[in-house]
Design a protein that fits this description.
By secondary structure, the protein is α+β, with helices and mostly antiparallel strands. The protein folds into 2 domains: 79 residues; 261 residues, Deoxyribonuclease I, Chain A (4-Layer Sandwich), CATH 3.60.10.10. It starts with a helix and ends with a strand.
Length: 354
């Protein structure tokens, strides 16, 4: 009876491992549950590792099955945790990616003196970075504090600011790429007319070569992470969880459409591409898988630890990323967890051309 249960467990483990392996390849447009099931990949990895240890201690030949399943799913291990050191060769240029949450302009995010806003802008201006990609950027030319383009361009003379919305006071919302080096050309990958989510790009003439830098912000969840984290089992909480579930479904389908458009645009790039920004998806998603098919991920190459980038109530999320062309070497990667002014941590990567 024990052997029979062991064999059934081995079969279930095999089916689970192989099923999870293929989930990120399935477009949510054809089977949206794939994106939800993919969230359980880290748990699946833990189960496989536990089985590996258990059968190893028991000296059971099924140890080799667990080992093979772990090897098959090794790419997910690399996406979850990594240990590396900076390259021996110095970087030729660096890129900062940051979701600034509109510099906390809204009262629910701001403190009385807007000190976090000032610190954010100072952090960007004082960082020894060559290119800065900011998502959820806000600029008000008439305001001394939120005249952010004017304040930041003093250090970064070349920039591309794409606005998606303008309010009644003249404040502009959008995305921006700042650069110390000349921008040859620029443009926008439009996902949907009227959508606040888009990707912009700038072709930058670095001293050692040219590269196309994309600043992306894929479809947001619009989920209140605080409400989910603090929910209980009452009817009101169940309703909120269900609403969040439906938002997740809509978001993951929209992101699958957006990433397909982005990947097609990347393939037509005249220069080696680097893609930075807020993917709004973890490393086990369809969006991450599509970008990984054509680009390398900076965290996987030179990151350390788990690299969580979401600074909210829902822990253990890495949704901000930098991807680069295989012919561009990643020399370092850092998640700036000390910069906690918004619900995202900034990420910095160093690069050099092959």
């Amino acid at each position: 009876m024990t052997n029979q249960r062991t064999y059934k467990g081995a079969i279930l483990l095999t089916v689970m491992s192989l099923g999870l392996y293929f989930m990120p390849d399935i477009s949510p447009r054809s089977f949206w549950y794939s994106s939800f099931i993919s969230l359980f990949i880290p748990a699946g990895l833990i189960v496989v590792i536990c089985a590996l240890v258990y059968w190893g201690i028991k000296r059971d030949y099924l140890f080799f099955l667990a080992f093979i399943l772990l090897v098959i799913n090794w790419k997910f291990v690399q996406r979850s945790i990594t240990i590396s050191s900076e390259s021996e060769k110095e970087q030729e240029f660096s890129i900062l990616s940051y979701n600034a949450r509109l510099f906390n302009v809204y009262p629910q995010f701001a403190d009385k003196t807007f000190s976090a806003t000032r610190k954010m802008i100072d952090f960007i201006k004082k960082s020894d970075i060559d290119v800065v990609c900011i998502q959820e950027f806000y600029n008000d030319p008439k305001d001394t504090l939120f005249n952010t383009v004017h304040r930041i361009k003093k250090k970064y003379p070349y920039y591309y600011f794409s606005t998606t919305f303008k309010n009644h006071t003249g404040g502009m919302f959008g995305m921006v790429i700042f650069s110390k080096y000349p921008i040859i050309s620029k443009g926008t990958v439009v996902f949907n007319e009227g959508s606040n989510n888009q990707t912009i790009y700038a072709d930058i003439d670095f001293p050692t070569g040219k590269a196309r830098v994309y600043n992306m912000h894929l479809q947001s969840m619009s989920i209140n992470d605080k409400e989910i984290a603090e929910s209980h089992f009452d009817q009101k909480s169940k309703t909120k969880v269900m609403q969040a579930f439906l938002k997740y479904k809509s978001g993951t389908i929209n992101r699958s459409i957006q990433v397909d458009k982005l990947v097609n645009h990347i393939k037509d790039s005249p220069y080696k591409p680097i893609v930075c920004g807020d993917l709004n998806d973890p490393p086990y998603s369809y969006t991450y898988e599509k970008l990984s098919d054509v680009l390398n991920n900076g965290f996987e190459k030179k990151g350390n630890g788990f690299g969580f980038t979401f600074n909210g109530k829902i822990p253990f999320l890495r949704i901000d990323h930098q991807f680069s062309d295989p012919n561009i070497i990643v020399t370092r990667f850092e998640t700036k967890t000390s910069v906690s002014f918004t619900d995202h941590f900034p990420i910095i990567a160093g690069y050099r051309f092959k």
